Amino acid sequence: MMISNGIEDEEKWLAEGMAGIQHNAFYLHRALDSNNLREALKYSALLLSELRTSRLSPHKYYELYMRAFDELRRLEMFFKDENRHGCSVVDLYELVQHAGNILPRLYLLCTVGSVYIKSKEAPAKDVLKDLVEMCRGVQHPIRGLFLRSYLAQISRDELPDIASEYESEGDTFMDAVEFVLQNFAEMNKLWVRMQHQGPLREREKLDKERNELRDLVGKNLHVLSQIEGVDLEIYRDTVLPRVLEQVVNCKDELAQYYLMDCIIQVFPDEYHLQTLETLLGACPQLQSAVDIKTVLSRLMERLSNYAASSPEVLPEFLQVEAFTKLSNAIGKVIEAQVDMPIVGAITLYVSLLTFTLHVHPDRLDYVDQVLGECVKKLSGKAKLQDSRVTKQVVALLSAPLEKYNDIVTALTLSNYPRVMDHLDAATNKVMAMVIIQSIMKNNTCVSTSDKVEVLFELIKGLIKDIEGTSTDELDEEDFKEEQNSVARLMHMLYNDDPEEMLKIINTVWKHIMAGGPKRLPFTVPPLVFSTLKLVRRLQVQDGDVAGEEVPATPKKIFQILNQIIEALSVVPSPELALRLYLQCAEAANDCDLEPVAYEFFTQAFVLYEEEVADSKAQVTAIHLIIGTLQRMNVFGIENRDTLTHKATGYSAKLLKKPDQCRAVYACSHLFWVDDQDGIKDGERVLLCLKRSLRIANAAQQMVNVTRGSSGPVTLFVEILNKYLYFFEKGSPQITGAAIQGLIELIKTEMQSDSTTSNPASDAFFASTLRYIRFQKQKGGVMGEKYDPIKL
């Protein structure tokens, strides 16, 4: 209620003031129209008396001031025309000083002073000095600020400056500088004093009102920046020290923050660069509540943009040692402001790092120095929990990655992992993912074991449990995504030198073994395939390389591979381990290492026997074993027979008859390898196919017994296709008569009343018959071969 009453009262007082100005303006206009100077002065003084009020807020007072200002512009036009009032400007200057109240007197004096300067009947500097001194007569903060603002506004175009019409021997731009600086100093004092104008309980309201008036003070700095004569030397020796003296001595956080920001925004970047020491020297002297981090951040942002504007300015930055000065200043500010929150300090280091990456991208020592300062600030503190601090640290760590587009550069920064250590587990993972994404996006190759060591230290949040966190607490989808990212990363670790590549593999192996069993199914396969890639490059090599402790030979690497895959037994993940053993066996085959290949097959069979219990997994595994064994050409007769016998034996022991049938006819390929030196044992091929036929028959009978009808003839058609394959390959034991007999068997089965019709099986058989017809019609050697078969 009291607030609403206060607002209503203020509106009423403003309306009364406006009415007073309106009333006196009417008589003023009449006096001006009749060229009556005495009446004009009388009513203008009465009009201006309305500005003597203390009851209005700055916002409302501004409205009143602007209404009076409009009338003063009209009065100024009248004063300029001596023919209208018949009084010389010198006499007029004396005459207005007889006004009864000081505020109207000074407004009139400033108005006539403007005309006096334009008349050039007196040096501009004398008039300006007189006015700026006289205005000290009004010490009420709001009234004084608006009066001095009026003085600044009307004198703006009349300052003596280089190439200005008001410059003369007696009037130089330095007089203009002195006038603006003096007016600025007085206005700042008035502005600061405003905070003491009301009770403490209204401090927030007062600060808001003061904030509304800040531009009145700041305009002086803008005027200074526009004076042509203010070159770097004048700015360095006169302007900046005088302005900073006011800023530091006023001891008011609102004024200090605003004016420091003003200095940075209105004066040229080149000046800031050359006066960096002076400007930064003021920062530690500011009040502790001043948001100095924002001020310094804006300064560094301006300097970064200046550096980016032209390569020609970069030597200037080195010349003035900008980085060292900024770094020292930030250190002093953090030291001086003991209550500065950690987020403020880190924000400053982010800005300094951004500046460094823009201006000195080649100076990695500077980048590392900034990170080192950050580590010092964070040391002794617990893991960061504040999201704002964490966000700034992530920004700090991301900046080098974004600038260099190359993690290898970041890996040379010794303090990079030390900063990461201060992140909490969740953010550490986020940062690790950012690093991996940077590597993948830029296709960066990490090519030494030392760099891999540093890299894995950086992403340790993904490759092992830290700080007591457990993989059990993680969301399954997130965990998979993280581990798949690590798996992709492993393919970016590469070196053409086999010795170094082996060191990289050992480094990775050491790290992923610390990751626990849940991560191994994701991290072991890419490591195995990276290692196999190395093996294939070394196929031509064998034996030890002289003088090397750990020679990169295929034999040595296969031993490492065996240990890596064995680690999966703790998971356990037998199906995956079996697949990897078979891949290694194939690589050993290509390297012509029979004992090694045999050992890998043995491991695969042991896993099959002891670990693979699920019937579906057994089917998949046996087909993988058969497929791999079929491609092996390194084995002697004895070893091959042993492995082939095992494979066929396991095929016949599968749980379901259809699975047995398919595995057994797949084994036929083990006895007929279609290349120059491959085995071609038609007898055993036929044996496998006949055995599969018997199993297919048994499967049909079982279905008949359990369901009262035979199943589809799909298995028979599949076996027929195998017969056709080996028939075409030239196996003498597979004859046209055997194929003819099988076709008749299938037709009989399909026509039987007990057989269930199946469209897929029918289509499959029809397609097979169509193929036979095609081969018969094609003619040639194959046509003759197929000719005896009757459809």
UniProtKB/TrEMBL annotation:
Signal peptide bounds: none
GO-annotated biological processes: protein transport
Gene Ontology terms: cellular component: endosome membrane; Golgi apparatus
Cell compartment(s), UniProt: Cytoplasm; Endosome membrane; Golgi apparatus, trans-Golgi network membrane; Prevacuolar compartment membrane
Classification via Pfam families: Vps35
Keywords: Cytoplasm, Endosome, Golgi apparatus, Membrane, Protein transport, Transport
Keyword Transferase applies: no
Bilayer topology term: Peripheral membrane protein
Function noted in UniProt: Plays a role in vesicular protein sorting.
Family named by the database record: Belongs to the VPS35 family.
Protein name: Vacuolar protein sorting-associated protein 35
Organism for this UniProt entry: Abeliophyllum distichum
